[in-house]
């Protein structure tokens, strides 16, 4: 490929030099790379938010893209650095759940590798910043055409995080809020399949925290009047609760991680 | 052109996956593109701020640049998606005023097109995110050399927003604050022409909100002592009120949208 | 070089059009350039923070990179615009200390030039934004292969800022906090050499502000229990004080600029 894409997702913020250090390493190994920031505004140590944001963006990138995700409270401990091959792309990061949602959504065969080959890392691997010393150079070598199997041996599975779980009862489904976006939209881990399961059509009956709401299932925000709440299946395929030109999470008192129950309307 | 430039201006912030999704779509259609963020820190739904920020940055980009602006409270409603050809560049976005200041400042002939050809959009256009599904792929196709006329029919005009208006009286001019920048500089929609109209030279007499100030018209911030207010024509050509190494907007109690009156000094 | 890298460090923030204007100018002069943001989240006018952040990131970039740093409270005054050649790279910015730490850390010969040749600036140099009108075009011309000597005459030295100073006593060293990062890590201007000087090995005895701490010298954050403080030499080579998964600066009441004293443990 002429211009391989490497994406970055982290909780580093944009004030410190850390993101630039990763880009420096990537461009040193693969000067033709186009590096795209998915987000560095992940809440510190919030693996769930990172997993959601990456899973949301990844399907829009072309085949051959290498995705790096570094939200890594266990840096320097025994958690494994991994590469996942899925949907014609590579996902690079620690095995702590941060890659799990993107991998689960990918179509076709999936292969897992444990990164152990120091030949593809920086000469000095620090104890504090594997994003720069391990994941960035590995990603750049993958972008250069190195095969995942050269990085380490294939493994059979990766850690599955709890935040991806959905429980189905009799016409009831229990999930959780995986993200509150910058507009205040409340994104759940439930989708069209779960709406069908409870038989929701024009109206969605949903419990968020301690309150239950009956909301119109809309196609777009402006389908209700300004400042009115609504439900819709967002462009990422997840059910979200929004307020037209308002901040749903604040107005409904909802936070990331809250339980969500979907009832038969 | 070897490396076509596509710029992005939005109110999406940098925490969520939305900006990355737009870049993914652009690079999928036009892998050679250099994507430049103008700003994703536009205040939510603040079309005026987006229009100002884009108009300020656009003149510095080379010919052939494609500018995309998405501040779009009406997404999914009947507001038109448009392309404007001006000054050898293309401007892509909703017809809600967000492109108006950049287009007004452009020299030479201007042409307007309504985007209707679905061939240049994503296969599934959501009701909530035309930035990714319509504007990003359209921009990337323009960067690839597609002509604006292929996107839809030419139209005669676009919406003119109220925030661009300046009223001239007898040696008095009324405008407004179009932007307060991160340093606290208060940027108005008045320029050198309006200063000439009221006869301002070394001193500017200006009403901001409820207070009237007589300020020295300077060439640079350090022309006055630290913490002192001053007026100058900023590098974008607009009259601004600043405080040397201070935050003019907070100290003078001024906000974006406030009325500005310029008097004969 | 195929794809020259130009990096940017500033206190402009990401909301305003200023960073995009610099990138526009760079890409206009050198369309092949890859522009990398080091940080635009430098505290306004905080030359020390900018100097630290640039010095931290610069060593990871490949030879030939052009680094631009613009934290410039004296813009438009007589402070000199300079270019420094060091370690196979160029550093461009005002002579106010912002380049000093990166240059001090660089190996090999160092040359200083004063930028005076207007041929490599924008045709109109404003009094308020030399980042765009002087430093960006100069950097892009350097990326294009222009030699530093063409920009202006060589000079013998640049300004040395006070914030880089370390004082050594009898088994005691006095330095300062140069940065508090987004995770709350407290970064000092002391390193391995100063630890050796005071004879610190497993334990570091350190005064931060008004309190003295005896901290375990660790290899990584997780070497102590969650919420416990520790000392380590960060990946940039500087001694830092951290709290495992906590915010050291808030918990210990430390701010950038605070005095740091290292004692014999």
The stretches of 5 or more residues of chain A where confidence is low (pLDDT under 50) are none
> What kind of sheet is the major sheet of chain A?
7 strands, mixed
Q: What is the multimeric organization of the chains shown?
A: homotrimer
Along the chain, the helix and strand elements of chain A come as EHEHEEEHEHEEEEHEEEEHE
**Class by alpha and beta content of chain A:** alpha+beta
Distance between the termini of chain A: 50 Å
- Largest interchain contact: A-B, 37 and 31 residues
Provide a quick synopsis of the model.
The first copy, chain A, is of the alpha+beta class. Chain A has helices spanning 18-29, 47-57, 100-105, 130-143, 192-198, 248-252, and strands spanning 5-10, 34-39, 66-70, 81-86, 89-94, 110-114, 154-155, 167-168, 173-180, 186-191, 203-208, 211-218, 229-233, 238-243, 259-263. Chain A has 6 helices and 15 strands.
Written account of the structure:
Chain A is 21% helix and 31% strand. Chain A is an alpha+beta fold and 265 residues long. The first copy, chain A, has a seven-stranded mixed β-sheet with strand order 2-1-3-5-4-6-7, with helices on both faces. In chain A, strands 9-10-14-13-12-11-15 form a seven-stranded mixed barrel. In chain A, helix 1 packs parallel to helix 4. The longest helix of chain A has 14 residues. Chain A starts with a strand and ends with a strand. In chain A, 54% of the residues are buried. Chains in contact: A-B, A-C, B-C.
